[in-house]
Specification:
The complex is a heterodimer. Chain A is of the alpha/beta class. Chain A is built from 12 helices and 12 strands. Chain A has 2 domains: 15-101 and 183-338, Rossmann fold (3-Layer(aba) Sandwich); 113-182, no CATH class. In chain A, 33% of the residues lie in helices and 21% in strands. In chain A, the strands form 2 sheets. Chain A has an 8-stranded mixed sheet with strand order 6-7-8-3-9-10-12-11, with helices on both faces. The two termini of chain A are 31 Å apart. The radius of gyration of chain B is 24 Å and the shape is globular. In chain B, 75% of the residues lie in helices and 0% in strands. Classes of the chains: A alpha/beta, B mainly alpha.
Chain lengths: 341, 318
């Protein structure tokens, strides 16, 4: 939450990612999952990464924690979180960073918790691992955390196993695990996607509140624009492993500059007449094994011109940190106003 | 929980009945006659009838069964035709001899299988995985009787390090695992009995752990910053029910089914007794042994079931 009215000098970003490339190598093919992604996250800022399945949003986030299988993954570029140069860390150092400096909430609370350990044990384990405290002290912290994430009757729930909790409670427990060592950066991989709509909102509210309370930086991956509008300070839209639009949540969602973002907006349900069709983006995302040199979205884009297929567009600056990568930005705004994109 | 235990124990009664009926039937379906092995070939008809009467073999089979069952309920399994000693004493002594080496073999097999299985599961497809798998396949494929004979040839006959047969001079009464004098007799049978369960348990451990290590929650554990070893501990707890089930089966097989090993090493256990009882048509001894073994098998499985509920809270036994 960079306060724009306050003329203090800009702080150092909490996260700095520069020209990140992630390739998954196998005998058959190389999947170019992330292609030159750069972004910053300020302390206490929420960055939402939006994109379809396979656009590289989860891969980007997992790279920050080195969670990819080492053997099959090639990562280049630089990543810094706090004082840690992620690419330079040894396995042991990385283990000390995981869960303490950076932690992660996963999409499926059903399967992301160990089914044969109690919730309390799973929270306490992280605390004991990173802070070397006794089991009793760790359990006390676990109870505190369960209260923080607003789990009703937390004492009883600490002794419960994951299968004894509802989806929403499980995701809160998952958040308690992730927050147990007060991380500087929280990575949330579609944490509300598997939940009911009403439960989604509750979890989002808790998350946003704790984020403000702890002053955490958050990278929140979602494909739900509504969720992004609720929680984000900044939004990055990813397509085929690249960030194609980036800016404050207001700029990106209200004044989108990239035809893909525009298409995403048009393809959501937002009070149209009931007989009006929802505008789906035609076609499907490109095969990440065979990426063409031009703009990856061009084959599906209504505004595409021959130049779009020749090379990938450089970033356009729209002011206030709003960036898009499109040759046809000039045509995007009128297209939106005419409601045709 | 206790209700469940009580119900399971109650269920052993029909199982026991079934076992006794089947083994009674099998014994009488098989050719041969215990009287023939007791009496000289030129015994008179009157002697044969007298002997039959003495052992109750002149009654109709169902009556024999009911009489035997009634006595079995109060712990009287009759007398061995060959030795004239109470069957219950013979069986329990043999059972004690067998259970000691069976338990040692299974514990040994489980320990080695865990180490090899973990190494293999962490690095599926690596040379360590292949080596462990090769050991397991060898363990499963090598016939125990062949291994037993080879062990005797190598370590007893050629090298002269270990005795080939028996339990030592004092027999089972003086046997102690703490004294080398008697312990040395147990080593070769234990090795021969360990290899097959080792292979089976290693394969189970490997496949169970490899499957669990691929599950979502393992990534959560990694994201929490746990060490590889802590993650393995989580995986073992998750896989424990499957591994325990296999462990119980293997122990059950060894308790009842080590006929070959015990015969080769003349180890006076249940397998050896079964073998003798079959060859000499010692029906009371055969029936008593089978009954005790069946009950032991049921009990082992009950213990495994209870251990599983302790490990995995999702298994409800009520």
């Amino acid at each position: 939450m960079a306060d724009t009215n306050n003329p203090t000098p800009p702080k150092r970003p909490l996260v700095e990612v520069r020209d990140l490339n992630v390739n998954f190598v196998s005998r058959e093919a190389t999947v170019r999952a992330v292609n030159g992604v750069s972004f910053d996250v300020m302390p206490g800022e929420v960055l939402c990464i939006i994109g379809e399945s396979g656009s590289g949003k989860s891969v980007t986030m997992r790279s920050l924690m080195q969670l990819h299988p080492k053997k099959r993954t090639r990562i280049t570029g630089s990543m810094r979180v706090g004082d840690h140069d992620i690419m330079a860390l040894s396995d042991k150092e990385m283990n000390a960073v995981r869960g303490r400096v950076i932690s992660m909430v996963f999409q499926e609370p059903m399967t992301a918790l160990d089914p044969v350990y109690t919730i309390g044990d799973q929270i306490a384990e992280t605390v004991m691992r990173h802070e070397g405290v006794s089991k009793a002290a760790a359990m006390e912290r676990a109870l505190e955390l369960m209260q923080m994430v607003k789990v009703p009757s937390p004492e009883r729930r600490l002794k419960a196993y994951p299968h004894e909790l509802s989806g929403g409670l499980r995701q809160r427990a998952m958040m308690a695990v992730a927050l147990s060592c007060r991380p500087a950066l929280l990575l949330a991989d579609e944490p509300t996607t598997a939940l009911d709509a009403t439960v989604q909102i509750q979890v989002l509210i808790v998350l946003r509140k704790l984020q403000e309370q702890f002053g955490m930086g958050v990278i929140f991956v979602t494909h739900d624009l509504g969720v992004a509008a609720q929680i984000a300070d900044k939004v990055a839209v990813m397509y085929a492993g690249r960030i194609i639009e980036y800016g404050s949540v207001k700029d990106v969602l209200l004044k989108p500059k990239h035809p893909y973002t525009l298409g995403l907006m048009a393809s959501t349900v937002h009070g149209q007449n009931r007989d009006q069709d929802i505008d789906a983006i035609p076609g499907s995302p490109p095969d990440m094994r065979f990426l063409a040199p031009g703009c990856s979205f061009a084959p599906r884009c209504k505004l595409a011109q021959p130049e779009c297929l020749a090379s990938f567009p450089e970033p356009n600056d729209h002011g206030n940190g709003h960036m898009s990568r499109c040759f046809r930005t000039a045509a995007t705004t009128p297209a939106m106003e005419m409601g045709i994109a | 929980m206790w209700l469940y235990v009580a119900r399971r124990l109650f269920l052993t009664i029909p199982i026991g009945l079934g076992v006794t009926i089947i083994c009674f039937a099998l014994v009488y379906l098989a050719p041969g006659d215990p009287i023939q092995s007791l009496l000289p070939p030129d015994a008179s008809e009157a002697d044969k009838i007298a002997i039959k009467k003495a052992y109750g073999l002149d009654e109709p089979i169902p009556v024999q069964y009911v009489v035997w069952l009634g006595k079995a309920l109060i712990g009287d399994l009759g007398k061995s035709i060959q030795t004239n000693r109470p069957v219950i004493d013979e069986v329990m002594r043999a059972f004690g001899n067998t259970i000691t080496i069976a338990v040692i073999s299974v514990v040994l097999a489980m320990g080695i299988a865990l180490v090899l299985g973990i190494i293999a599961a962490i690095k599926v497809g690596s040379w360590a995985d292949r080596l462990s798998t090769a050991i397991a396949v060898l363990g499963i494929s090598v016939p125990t009787f062949w291994l037993g004979v080879v062990l005797v040839i190598v370590f007893s006959v050629n090298l002269g390090w270990l005795p080939a047969t028996g339990m030592g001079e004092g027999g089972s009464e003086d046997f102690s695992f703490l004294e080398w004098e008697s312990l040395q007799y147990a080593i070769l049978p234990i090795i021969a009995m360990t290899l097959t369960p080792l292979g089976i348990l290693m394969r189970t451990t490997r496949s169970t752990l490899a499957e669990i290590l691929g599950q979502d929650f393992i990534q959560t554990l990694r994201a929490k910053g746990l060490s590889e070893w802590q993650i393995i501990v989580h995986a073992i707890w998750n896989g424990a029910p499957q591994i325990l089930a296999m462990l119980g089966l293997q122990l059950g097989y060894l308790v009842g089914g080590s006929i070959l090993v015990e015969t080769i090493f003349t180890w006076p256990g249940t397998g050896f007794v079964l073998n003798t009882a079959i060859l000499t048509r010692d029906i009371p001894l055969l029936q008593g042994t089978i009954l005790v073994l069946a009950m032991a098998f049921v009990l082992i499985n009950l213990i495994v079931d209870l251990l599983q509920t302790l490990v995995d809270p999702r298994i409800k036994r009520t």
